[in-house]
Amino acid sequence: MLMLLLLLGPSSGLGALVSQDPRTAVCKSGTSVMIKCHSVGIQATTVFWYRQFPEQGLTLMATSNVDSKAAYEQGFSETEFSISHPNTTFSSLTVMSVKPADSSLYFCSASNTALGRDQRLRQEPCQQPPSSPPHRTPGALWKELRREKNHSFSD
C-alpha cells in the first residue's frame, strides 16, 4: 500500500479560498489518484501545483492556465502527472500509476493573472545564508551589526 498525503486544510487570503480534496488518499501501487483544487472568491486563471517531501521545501511541479496545456517543470511530465484546468474555479492533478516515490504532500495555489508561455514561474533553489560561527550568540551578533552600522555612518 502507498499513502499520499494531499492537504492539511483549506487556505485563504484576501477573501479568496482554495481547497483540495481528498484530504488524504491511500492507494495501491499502479493505481491512479485525482486531487481536485477548487477556488472560491478568485477567478483562478492560473493554477500552480506543488509537491513537498518531509523536511523539504515546496517543489513546483507544473503551472496551468485555463483551457491550456500545463507547463511542466523539469522532472515532471504529463504521463506521470496529468493536469486538467477547464475553468476558473476548478483544476485537478492526477498522479498516474502511483509508485512509492510519489508519497508526498501535494498542494495547489491559484492566481487571477494568466501567465504567458514566456512568463512561466521559475523555481530557484533556496540559498541558505552564511552560517555564523557557533560561538557567536544572537545577542553578540546583534551588537556586532549595530557597531558596523554605527561605524559605517559615523562622521
Automatic annotation (TrEMBL):
Keywords: Immunity, Signal. SUPFAM superfamilies: Immunoglobulin. Residues 118-155 are annotated as: Disordered. One of its GO terms (cellular component) is plasma membrane. Residues 10-122 form the Ig-like domain. It holds the Pfam family V-set. Residues 127-136 have a biased composition (Pro residues). GO terms for biological process: cell surface receptor signaling pathway; immune system process. Residues 143-155 have a biased composition (Basic and acidic residues). Transmembrane segments: none annotated. SMART domains: IG, IGv. The keyword Signal applies. The keyword Signal applies. Residues 1-15 form the signal peptide. This is Ig-like domain-containing protein. It comes from Panthera leo.
